[in-house]
Amino acid sequence: MDIFSTVLDIVGIDAPADRIYDGRSLLPALLDGQIDSKKAIFYYRGNEMMAVRQGLYKAHYWTWTNSISEFIKGINFCRGENVTGVMTHEQTNHTAQPLLFHLGRDPGEKYPIK
Fold this sequence. Notes:
alpha+beta
């Protein structure tokens, strides 16, 4: 998330000029619902890019909810959801053939486009 850029925008402070920032403020989206559909949104989990969204399409490159050992202990990151091939307890690599979803027709990301 672009928290740093958004907080700077909220308080009206410019980012320090001694480095390059790749973030952008989400304030227009939060206040006015303005979303630039031409710009991609990248989803990370730690250092791994898990998915990318462009407009109404979202591609998952990796799927993983949480480990089976955590799940057995009652830790469930996706309660009430079980989407075969998407909700996985092992980190699954889909980089060769990403799972693609149309968020307008499938906002719950349950039915990958074949």
